[in-house]
Amino acid sequence: MNVSQCMCVVVTAERLVAVFLPFKFRAVVRPRRASIVVCSLYLFWLGATLVYIRKFNFNFRYLSAYQTCVCDYDLKLNGDEVMFDTVCTWIACYVSLAIIIIGSLTIFTKVKSASRRRGKMTSSKTASCSRTTRTLLAVCGFFGCMQIMRLPYTTSSSFPDRETFMIYFVFVRLASNLNSASNFIIYVILNKKFRKILKTMTCCES
């Protein structure tokens, strides 16, 4: 999820540049720069994940009453690793979410204001940019809503007992799966090009 959150931050930043600096957009946002940013994010969180994996102690137990296997785990971190874990948690859960929400609201306000001033967009390029912005705003907005519901899961101390925590854990997993499956649906609903592609893929030509 950390990579997903940071990617939404990158998308939000890209749309902010597109909306507020439309004439400098192509000079600022270039394929090479985008590739560097994306690869850097993946490498950073890959390194963080490898650190965590080394520190986990797993204990698998078989519950004959339920005929299933469960896994208990314990995470042991030293002082520096605890600080690193805290920083990663804040970046992934709070800072990124704040950027996504504030950025999305700012973009939405700017686009609405520009639309009212123009009355009606006549330029196909402007309309295309508007469709892209609207689609990505919907993706980031839905992602932000799912992440807000996930925030209490960051610490089990927010729950009165383990049973309540496990019920919420199932809910969080469901929300995560919905978020992962929603992007294509949002693209198809809000973007004409995706609808056309879907129609081409699913309809047989006579």
UniProtKB/TrEMBL annotation:
Gene3D superfamilies associated with the record: Rhodopsin 7-helix transmembrane proteins
Keyword Acyltransferase set for record: no
GO molecular function, one term: G protein-coupled receptor activity
A cellular component term, taken from the record's GO annotations: membrane
SUPFAM superfamilies referenced in this protein's UniProt entry, alphabetically: Family A G protein-coupled receptor-like
InterPro entries xrefs: GPCR-Ligand_Int (IPR052954), GPCR_Rhodpsn (IPR000276), GPCR_Rhodpsn_7TM (IPR017452)
Keyword Amino-acid biosynthesis: no
Pfam family, one: 7tm_1
Segments crossing the lipid bilayer: 34-53, 89-111, 132-153, 165-190
Compartment(s) where it occurs, according to its Swiss-Prot or TrEMBL record: Membrane
Alphabetized UniProt keyword annotations: Membrane, Transmembrane, Transmembrane helix
Superkingdom assignment: Eukaryota
Domain spans labelled G-protein coupled receptors family 1 profile: 1-187
PANTHER family: FMRFAMIDE RECEPTOR, FMRFAMIDE RECEPTOR-RELATED
Protein name: G-protein coupled receptors family 1 profile domain-containing protein
Species annotation: Lymnaea stagnalis
